[in-house]
Amino acid sequence: YRTAMQEWGTFDSSSVLLNGGYELVKNSMRSNLLSVQSDCPHREKLPYGGDLIANSPSAMHMFDMSAFYKKTIRDWMDAQWDNGAYTETSVWQDLNDYAGIGKGAGETVWATAPPVLTVRHMQHYGDLDLLKESIGSHTRWLEFLNKEFDSGMIKKGYDKKLKTYRGDGSGLGDWLALPVKDTYLTHTGFYMASSRCIAYISNKLGNAKMRKKSVLLAELIRNRISSLYLWNGRDTFTYPMARYPSTPGPEMSLFARIVPGEKRCAVLKNWFRRKGEIWDGDEETLFLNELDSSYAEQLVNAGVLIKDDEDYLFSNSQWQGFGEGIFSIRYALKTLSDMGFHHIALRKASGIGFGTTEYMLTHNATTMWETWWRSEDVYSRNHPMLGAIAEWMSSSVAGVSVHPTTVGGRQVLFWPRFPKSATMLKFASSIQGTPVGDFAIAWRFENLPEDKSEYYSALVTVRIRLLVPPGGSGMLRLPLPSSKTTKIRISHTNSIPDLDAARDEANRKCTNRRKHGLGFHWNWEYDRQRKKWYTHSSRKSIGTACESFLFNLTPDWSEQADITHDVVSRTDSKLSAGLYDLIVTNWKLEKEEEGTGRLGNIPQYFHPNYKPGPFCNDSHSFDWHIDDAAHII
Questions:
Q1: What is the pLDDT of residue 92?
Q2: CB under 8 Å to 337, separation ≥6 — which residues?
Q3: What is the mean pLDDT of residues 554-561?
Q4: Is 569 buried (19+), middle (13-18) or exposed (0-12) by CB count in 10 A?
Q5: Mean pLDDT for the chain?
Q6: Among 145, 84, 90, which Cα is nearest to 117's?
Q7: Angstrom distances, CA of residue 237 to CA of 245, 253, 478
Q8: I want to staple 502 with a disulfide (CB 3.0 to 4.6 A). Which of 104, 442, 521, 552 is the partner?
Q9: What does 65-112 look like in DSSP terms, one character per residue?
Q10: Helix (H, G, I), strand (E, B) or coil at 251
């Protein structure tokens, strides 16, 4: 039961865990879109700005949010204080005002939702009238920050050089993260984002004076952050006196083009030094107290539990799961995938045990939880706040997203990333709806060996299908070839067969698979008499793997064109309307990087002699560009 809007985004893959996580997010979204985008449908029911910033990319992937988000932005404009301050929620509730910089302002991240949503709205829906309507209110918010931010931060206890700052300062920051929250970085980063938003909007409206002023201010704030976060000389991009890893740190700063270009590779490498942590939360402790040792040993062998002498312990893994809060989930996954470490992002999202969506599924979740840990009292179990993983699945795992610099969703970026081995993933697909029509992508490994031990080493074929609707265009970007013998060929057709029939057939097959319960297959149950937890096998639909309708199409293709050279030279190819078929031959599968275990890091990636590839050296992406809506923050 929700506000009526078109549901136009989908994701499917061979991974029950990825599919299950996507379904958790979508189910939570569906039940939190009634007039306002609420945090949970049964308790607070409030439109928090931070939640919208965190998961609006997923919402805009899944649904046509054009009218809904226009109304949301107007709600905030109506609630704006006379001094220009925006509130934490779109209707002021006198909640958490302590977390802002004062004088009515909501926490800086939460209160920056209106301009950020406006920019994303323009990227997806192209509503120039909304820019004209909202620019005055957003400019007043930026003027409020210019006047009050520095003094407000000092009053909150942040000294200018951060010499006394130890993280977890006044503010909300990367909400419900497990590591230390770097609240200074989020406050200041979203001040920068506010200025970038005004620059973006001014540019679209042709106001060169305001654009120039806002770009200069945004760069000034970026440089302020960089000078402080590189001051200690460790190239970890953390606050000067940091003793422990904090969030968001390098992931947000790399994604949002805050880290100076010449430092990106060093910061990226040092990020892989981070490790997981032991977790001793109340519900997990109670669970272990009521778990037979035989089950506990099985979980140790599976890498879910840590055994310390005779004690069994839960832990959150840095590289095999999540400890990130609502913002850094997106930054971590997108940065890893974009900078050549998609296999590590896949491992995080496909992880098992505490701090994963698999953990939620094992406790019978059908919607996303508010936290990575179990909560039987305080926190919600229907809360899309951690839902940024869904948009990453569509944009990076399958490989389609609204292009960062387009307006009105007229152009998408087709950028599929493949796992190192076929044990992780064998196929993926996604549909991205836009005002001009549905774009779609599907890829799969073909000619896989019968012997699964060769899934780490075989030469295989990758087949990719792309659909560009009339009036739309696509930019094609493919991973660098994995071997010297890899060849990439493309063919197309403008005579597209019956798409509706192909979709109907694919949906029929998928529905049949779901009816047979081919999704996630077990969960924990509690024996109240014995006061013990035990596993229960069951046939569930959630997470069921289904293949794309694109592989049901058999048109007459044009002659193949070899685009290997373009891919090697990292030249994007522009695609006009039509259906495309790509064949990648001699794709070399490889062994996955192991690292040092669930609690460990990945030493091979921060070794002094390791070269992290061409992506962190890409000078084109060193700085934020005025038309880039995706990387404003």
A1: 87
A2: 345, 392, 396, 417
A3: 94
A4: exposed
A5: 96
A6: 90
A7: 10, 8, 30
A8: 552
A9: -HHHHHHHHHHHHHH--TTSPPPSBSS----SGGGSSSTTPPPHHHHT
A10: helix
